[in-house]
Every structure is written in structure tokens, then in C-alpha cells.
């Protein structure tokens, strides 16, 4: 029989994403609903090691559902990667009489949670919080939808200036290993081409496509480039290549950077965060452990952390085809 859970801790770890506050709020309020105590841990695993805990009740999380970032702060903890660090964390958890842990973060944070569970047989539950949407076991990670809206808004603004000057803009968006953001915002922002890590478009095809687009009468062009795209070593080299190999283009680069992680969470992310928090707490209370909660076919499901970490998300081929047709 698993131990009855009377106190649950929640932390945010790794890169922050919009919706993390809404997820903390949901965890805290679901605990309150079930008469379970809830403890917030500051600065991710760092706070677990240093014992930076604060008891949270339903009222402590008022006014945060609409706020970006995470009020518990996030961190990357080197010490938690060591056995000694995790032992310190466990000792603090025992001292504080915590019976279960909800980790809001990405695959690195889940790896840490899984190891912690294996070493101390301690109940853990993951909520996928990352804008990259690169975790298996959920159609949407927390923050992905908000990031898409933020980036599309930026592309719309870049388009205004691009068309006023007949310019070609390379716009770099986040996505070192996956092109989910690039592909979606490329379609939504009317990009002429989308360069992603999963596909090698080839420089020649890019030049052909830009030439075609100019011949067809387009006055400006936007190419969305994921950070980890295959053809350019980086976006500035792409610009140099086009400068050298195509005449008459006024080429500019815009790297959107960390603004993609900020901002108020979208309605979709607030609802998703609320659903994920409820599922995470109630699953722990049912005696489940070592899972990640996720959205599959619009139903909240559990995926073993091991599968969520190991799996690789696939690019949506239908979206690729749509983007090809739209750039005609
Ligand atoms: P993002 O997707 O934004 O990068 P993430 O959760 O993948 O988020 P990481 O920096 O990879 O971010 O991991 C967050 C923290 O999880 C690390 O700083 C570390 O404390 C812990 N962690 C990651 N991998 C391990 C591991 N193998 N063993 C123990 N802890 C780990």
C-alpha cells in the first residue's frame, strides 16, 4: 500500500514558460480542495537542496493565473545532478514531512525527478512546462501556445516594416532540436519559407524559392528560421549567402530571443495549466508516481516519465505540406 499523501510540494525547474504560474495555482488549489497541505519550493531543485520552502494555501496564489514566468522562480541545479545533492534534498523533504512532489519543467527536470524517485522511492509527478513542445505524451506543452501567439505578433510587426522597404527578413525563433514553433508561426505569419532542424531544405532551393516569390510580384519576404535549422550554420551566415548570391535584395535579420518565453499566458495555456495541475495532484493522491500528465486527444492522460524523456516528437508532415502550398 502506498503511503497516504498529506503534503505535496511543487517546484518549477529548467527554462521558464508562460503558464507555469497558472499550473502552480492549480496544484495549490487542488491540494486545498482535497484537504492536502501544499508547499512551494523556490528555485527548482536548488531550493529543494537548500530547504527554501513556503506553505501555500488557496489564497497565496491569487492574482497569478495571468502572469508570465514563475513566482517560485526556476533554476538549473548542478548539485541535484550529484547523489550528495539529491540526498540533501531528500533529507529536507523528510524533515518537512512532504509525501509527494510535482515538478513543472522540461525533459531535464523530469530526468532529475525520475532518478530521485528511483533512489528514494519518493512519489513524483511531472507537468510539461516548455515553449518548445518537444515532449512526448502531450499534444501541447505548457507555454507553447502563448509562445506561438507572441511570435506571430512579432512577425506581423516585422512584416509591416519589411513591406514598406521591400525587404527580405530572416526571423530566428526558438527551437534548437525541433521546429514546432517555426512551422506553426511560419504558416500563421505567412512566411515564404520555413527552415527547421528536421528538414534540410538546401540553400539552392531557398534561393529558387525566393526568386520565384519575387517574380510572382511579392514585395517583401519573411523566412522563419528555427535556431537549430539544418542549412544555415547560423542565421547571419544565411543572410551573407543571400547577399552574395542574389541581387537586389535588402536582407535583414531579426533574432527574437527570450521575449518568446515571456508574456501573459494565452487562454489555452491557462486552461491547460489548470487541467494539468488537477490531474497531477489527483494522480499522486491515487497512489500513482513517476508519470507526466499530458493532453492526448483533448483528454488528460498519464505517460511514464521514462517514455516522455526518451521519446522524440515528430514534425507534423501535413503542416509542412500546407506551408509549401501557402508559399505558392
Ligand atoms: P528546458 O526544456 O527549458 O531546458 P529542462 O527541464 O529540460 O527545461 P534542464 O536544464 O535540462 O532543463 O534540467 C533542469 C534541471 O533538472 C537541471 O538543472 C538539473 O538540476 C536537473 N537534471 C537534469 N538532468 C538531470 C540528471 N541527469 N540527473 C539529475 N538531475 C538532472
- Estimated structural class: alpha/beta
Largest sheet, described in full? Answer: 7 strands, mixed
- Which residues sit in consecutive blocks of at least 5 with pLDDT less than 50? none
The radius of gyration is 22 Å
CATH 2nd-level architecture of the largest domain: 3-Layer(aba) Sandwich
Strand order of the largest sheet: 3-2-1-4-5-10-11
Mean pLDDT: 94
Tell how many strands the DSSP assignment holds: 11
How many alpha or pi helices? 11
The small-molecule ligands in this entry are: adenosine-5'-triphosphate
Q: How far do the termini sit from each other?
A: 61 Å
Which shape, going by the Cα principal axes?
elongated
Topology as a string of helices (H) and strands (E): EHEHEHEHEHEHEHEHEHEEHH
Domain count: the total is 2
Catalytic activity: beta-D-fructose 6-phosphate + ATP = beta-D-fructose 1,6-bisphosphate + ADP + H(+)
Binding site for Mg(2+): 107
Active site: 132
Cofactor: Mg(2+)
Characterise this structure.
The chain has 328 residues and is α/β, with parallel strands linked by helices. It has 2 domains: 7-143 and 265-310, Rossmann fold (3-Layer(aba) Sandwich); 147-261, Phosphofructokinase domain (Rossmann fold, 3-Layer(aba) Sandwich). The protein has 11 helices and 11 strands. It has helices at residues 20-33, 44-50, 83-95, 107-120, 144-165, 180-188, 203-215, 235-245, 267-285, 305-310, 317-326, and strands spanning 7-12, 37-41, 53-56, 100-105, 124-128, 167-173, 193-195, 221-226, 250-255, 291-296, 299-304. The strands form 2 sheets. Strands 3-2-1-4-5-10-11 form a 7-stranded mixed β-sheet, sandwiched between helices. Strand 1, helix 1 (20-33) and strand 2 form a beta-alpha-beta unit. The longest helix has 22 residues, at 144-165.
Amino acid at each position: 500500500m502506498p503511503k497516504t499523501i498529506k503534503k505535496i510540494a511543487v517546484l518549477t525547474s529548467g527554462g521558464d514558460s508562460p503558464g507555469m504560474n497558472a499550473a502552480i495555482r492549480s496544484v495549490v488549489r487542488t491540494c486545498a480542495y482535497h484537504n492536502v497541505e501544499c508547499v512551494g519550493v523556490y528555485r527548482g531543485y536548488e531550493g529543494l537542496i537548500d530547504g527554501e520552502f513556503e506553505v501555500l494555501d488557496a489564497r497565496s496564489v491569487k492574482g497569478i493565473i495571468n502572469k508570465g514566468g514563475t513566482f517560485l522562480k526556476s533554476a538549473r541545479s548542478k548539485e541535484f545532478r550529484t547523489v550528495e545533492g539529491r540526498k540533501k534534498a531528500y533529507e529536507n523533504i523528510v524533515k518537512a514531512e512532504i509525501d509527494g512532489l510535482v515538478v513543472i519543467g522540461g525533459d531535464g527536470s523530469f530526468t532529475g525527478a525520475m532518478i530521485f524517485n528511483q533512489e528514494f522511492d519518493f512519489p513524483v509527478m511531472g507537468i510539461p512546462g516548455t515553449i518548445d513542445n518537444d515532449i512526448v505524451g502531450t499534444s501541447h506543452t505548457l507555454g507553447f501556445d502563448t509562445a506561438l501567439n507572441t511570435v506571430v505578433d512579432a512577425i506581423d510587426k516585422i512584416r509591416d516594416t519589411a513591406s514598406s522597404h521591400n525587404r527580405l527578413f530572416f526571423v530566428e525563433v526558438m527551437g534548437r532540436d525541433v521546429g514546432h514553433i517555426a512551422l506553426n508561426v511560419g504558416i500563421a505569419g505567412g512566411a515564404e519559407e520555413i527552415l527547421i532542424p528536421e528538414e534540410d531544405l538546401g540553400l539552392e532551393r531557398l534561393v529558387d524559392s525566393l526568386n520565384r516569390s519575387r517574380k510572382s510580384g511579392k514585395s517583401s519576404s519573411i523566412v522563419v528560421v528555427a535556431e537549430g535549422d539544418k542549412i544555415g550554420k547560423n542565421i547571419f551566415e544565411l543572410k551573407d549567402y543571400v547577399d552574395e548570391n542574389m541581387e537586389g535584395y535588402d536582407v535583414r535579420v531579426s533574432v527574437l530571443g527570450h521575449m518568446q518565453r515571456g508574456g501573459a499566458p494565452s487562454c489555452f495555456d491557462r486552461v491547460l495549466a489548470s487541467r494539468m495541475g488537477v490531474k497531477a495532484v489527483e494522480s499522486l493522491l491515487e497512489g500513482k508516481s513517476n508519470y507526466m500528465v499530458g493532453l492526448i486527444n483533448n483528454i488528460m492522460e498519464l505517460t511514464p516519465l521514462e517514455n516522455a524523456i526518451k521519446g522524440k516528437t515528430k514534425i507534423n508532415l501535413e503542416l509542412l505540406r500546407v506551408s509549401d502550398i501557402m508559399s505558392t
